[in-house]
């Protein structure tokens, strides 16, 4: 067993990130830093049993892990979503959980717009057909003129509203639904200035030709886009998801695409990443699929790592981290 007088900070998996800036910040603040390079819970428990700060990449943080780390004070994430951490167990054990709020709002909204446009303009089909022998092929349906259609947004938080700002000039109307957003005069004025009309879920579902999801994954929102929901959307509409894969039942989505009820989907996220080889969204020319990359840019690559490490440092220096998502006792 390692003995150390310095607090220990442990990175779990760092598959597609360079933690160098975080390591530098943590070491300068007096931490001993370890990089395990694994998502396996037994290996994480073995390598981080004495951790004060846990810095996951994509690894799930379970109750068992939290209970096996008696000195743990913070799980500092490098994502906006925190659905892969047992928040209840963390809070119960006095462990802070932090995320990186707003760090990639511009990137995620831009990516949503990019794949939204790729799907509505049927780029999957036309990129595949732009060859000498299929040059004149046409997709089964002609795309709509966007200025004659309605964009629907579910979740009018930071990313949802940024997408409204970017996409508003392209669409005839923008409607949005968010049951948690307070109905204050400031928010009403903000939504009005952006040009989004706030309404109920039924109207958004019934009227949006292009529907984009910008809400967190919770037990209540898991599979909210199921067969019944898809059947209520306008025929030939397009679904966009850059939030979390499990918001959608992808088997129901495949069936809706096959029947023509939906004309296309644009997705950056799936319920399991990477997906199994037989995942129903793979290899379809009516699905624009990117590998959970919406947040990524030269700026966020650095900012995510910096904010993640800084949360651990700020907690030790002040007793409260910068961007908590829970309030442990
Ligand atoms: N693909 C990526 O790379 C990537 C990167 C960052 C964030 N995300 C995802 O984007 C989501 C949104 O991020 P954000 O920064 O806008 O968060 P945010 O907290 O600013 O906004 C989320 C909004 O969803 C609303 N909401 C909650 N439950 C709802 C429900 N049942 N129906 C409708 N709205 C509901 C909240 O009131 C809030 O306004 C995150 O939860 C995260 O999962 C993805």
Outline the secondary-structure elements.
Layout: E1 8-11, H1 20-28, E2 32-35, H2 41-48, E3 53-55, H3 63-67, E4 74-76, H4 87-92, E5 96-98, H5 105-120, H6 123-129, E6 150-154, H7 158-167, E7 173-177, H8 185-194, E8 197-198, H9 201-207, E9 210-213, H10 227-232, E10 237-241, H11 250-259, E11 262-267, E12 287-289, H12 298-318
Helix pairs in contact: 1-12, 5-7
Residues 80-81, 104-105, 108, 154-160, 177-181, 214-216, 220-221, 242-244, 268-269, 292, 294-295 line the site of nicotinamide-adenine-dinucleotide.
**Radius of gyration over alpha carbons?**
22 Å
What's the N-to-C terminus distance?
29 Å
Q: What level of helicity do the residues show?
A: 25-40%
Bound molecules: nicotinamide-adenine-dinucleotide
Instruction: For the largest sheet, list the strands in their spatial order.
Output: 8-7-6-9-10-11-12
Number of discrete helical segments: 12
| Share in β-strands | 5-15%
Q: What is the molecular shape?
A: globular
Low-confidence stretches: none
Average pLDDT metric: 96
The secondary-structure class comes to alpha/beta
SS elements, strand count: 12
| Major beta-sheet overview | 7 strands, parallel
H-E string: EHEHEHEHEHHEHEHEHEHEHEEH
State the gist of this model.
This protein is of the alpha/beta class. The protein has helices at residues 20-28, 41-48, 63-67, 87-92, 105-120, 123-129, 158-167, 185-194, 201-207, 227-232, 250-259, 298-318; strands at 8-11, 32-35, 53-55, 74-76, 96-98, 150-154, 173-177, 197-198, 210-213, 237-241, 262-267, 287-289.
């Amino acid at each position: 067993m390692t003995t150390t007088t310095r607090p220990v900070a442990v990175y779990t998996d760092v598959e597609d990130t360079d933690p160098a800036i975080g390591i530098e910040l943590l070491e300068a603040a007096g931490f001993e830093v370890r990089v395990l390079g694994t998502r396996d819970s037994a290996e994480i428990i073995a390598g981080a049993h004495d951790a004060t700060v846990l810095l996951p990449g994509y690894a799930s943080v379970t109750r068992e892990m939290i209970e096996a780390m008696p000195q743990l004070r913070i799980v500092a994430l490098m994502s906006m979503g925190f659905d892969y951490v047992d928040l209840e167990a963390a809070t119960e054990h006095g462990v802070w959980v932090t995320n990186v709020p707003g760090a990639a709002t511009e990137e995620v909204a831009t990516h949503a717009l990019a794949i939204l446009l790729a799907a509505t303009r049927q780029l999957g089909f036309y990129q595949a057909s732009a060859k000498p022998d299929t040059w004149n092929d046409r997709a089964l349906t002609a795309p709509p003129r966007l200025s004659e259609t309605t964009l629907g947004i579910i979740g009018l938080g930071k990313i949802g509203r940024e997408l409204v700002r970017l996409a508003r000039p392209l669409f005839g109307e923008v409607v949005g639904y968010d049951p948690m957003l307070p109905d204050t005069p400031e928010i009403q004025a903000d939504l009005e200035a952006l040009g989004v009309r706030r309404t109920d879920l039924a109207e958004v579902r019934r009227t949006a030709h292009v529907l984009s999801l910008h809400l967190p994954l919770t037990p209540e929102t898991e599979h909210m886009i199921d067969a019944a929901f898809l059947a209520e959307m306008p025929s030939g509409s397009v679904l966009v998801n850059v939030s979390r894969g499990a918001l959608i039942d992808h088997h129901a989505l495949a069936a809706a695409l096959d029947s023509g009820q939906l004309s296309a989907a644009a997705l950056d996220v799936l319920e399991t990443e990477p997906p199994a080889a037989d995942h129903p969204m793979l290899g379809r020319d009516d699905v624009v699929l990117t590998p959970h990359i919406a947040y990524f840019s030269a700026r966020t690559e650095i900012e995510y790592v910096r904010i993640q490490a800084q949360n651990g440092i700020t907690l030790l220096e002040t007793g409260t981290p910068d961007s908590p998502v829970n309030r442990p006792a």
